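Recall that a protein's primary structure is simply its ordered list of amino acids. Everything else, from secondary elements to tertiary packing, is in principle encoded there. The following example makes that idea concrete.
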Amino acid sequence: MEDNDLLKVRLEKIAALKAAGVNLYPNGIKPHNTTEEIFAGFGAADTDTLTKLSQKVSIAGRLMAVRNFGKAAFIKIQDRKGQIQSYAAKDILSADDYFVFKKLDIGDIIYISGKLFRTRTNELTIEAEELRLLSKSIRPLPEKWHGLTDVETRYRQRHLDLISNPAVKETFYRRSRIIRFIRQFMDQHDFLEVETPMMQPKAGGAVARPFKTHHNALDMDLYLRIAPELYLKRIVTGGLERVYEINRSFRNEGIDTFHNPEFTMMEFYWAYATYEDLMTFTEELFTAMATDVLGGLKFNYQGTEIDLTPPWRRISVKDALMELAGMEPAMLADKGQALAFARKAGCDVQDTDPAGKILMAIFDEIVEKKLIQPTFVTHYPVAVSPLSRRSESEPDLTDRFELYISGREIANAFSELNDPVDQKDRFLQQLKEREAGDDEAHEMDDDYIHTLEYAMPPTAGEGIGIDRLIMLFTDSSSIRDVILFPLLKEKAGTKDSIK
């Protein structure tokens, strides 16, 4: 084990505490205050005011620092809201409590009760009259002056990351606040929150590789959902015209700073709306959220100022390819020229790929990273949009947009394809691509076609990547920083626990 000498000292203290009859893990001891409440109530109180107070405060938390002065010490205690100082002295504590105090280690969970006072340096402090050990820490925390800095250790041992790095706690408080705001916003706009299956007989609703499992009792293969889309549209067909789900989805693909195999997104569907309505709605959601969470529409992300002030830029895929990738109109119209351009740009494309797929490979390679300020990219090719409604003016394109901020896709939306004949033809084309080797192509879903045959109203739907959104609003460079337990390759040689 790490720090064997420290560990030996801690085990000796544990043995002494047990020999004295001290319960190392008692239960039922409840603090009456948090550090936040204490500072809110007494942070401005001067010495005279505190001296006249008769009330006591009590907190429980983790011992983070000790400054010993012989028979007395100043200690720092950290609870879920912050840190506060306490003064522990032999002539104030009972003999039993002082015995326990002398056996404490950094990392122990303790309870303190006493009156408040100010030190000579004017720091608000609890004078400990009662001290209890609530949970003994056997292992030492990371080095106290530098915290936990090793990135892999931070992700693998998130509990230590949360203890050592206050900013990490703040990230997850903000994550919760953002998701809570989204729910309130959707509820205020008359959307109904629903739940759809996470295990599905068909992996539908997106172009992605699924995780596969098997149900023993039914003797059938199932897939962890790659998206809730097709089930949500069944609900709209059934008459619930505005629905949303904040869901966990799973995609069996690569891991990088913007991708985790298990992730959170919100999908919502709105009957009698179009993709253009969703662009306006998305602006309203994001600007309201930024105002609530960040206090304004301008903020820095990874050293660049992002401005969410509407209206946001709108540009078609073709115009973006010409403006930002340098393609000529003739290249957009001729598959051979597009293929040559793609290969020169280093794109992984095949001769058999549809023209629309080749154009999007160029977009992904060259254009995407240049879209820093919020931009709606519209009119995606039908070839890469198997569930989107065709544009009436350009049938090879769809009424679809993706929202890009800081060079990354944050949302994907479109007017839904509700023509069952066209939808079946799209699925059949996807099957051809699957047979040609594209294992991310959409499967045929006869049950969904059957649903559309009962008439789904004209509908628009959108998916928003919650993890990426939170990255943006917390200035986080990696998706692993906003997921409490990101997927990591198993580490060999994990050390045994104490026996």
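The chain has a mean pLDDT of 94. The radius of gyration is 29 Å.
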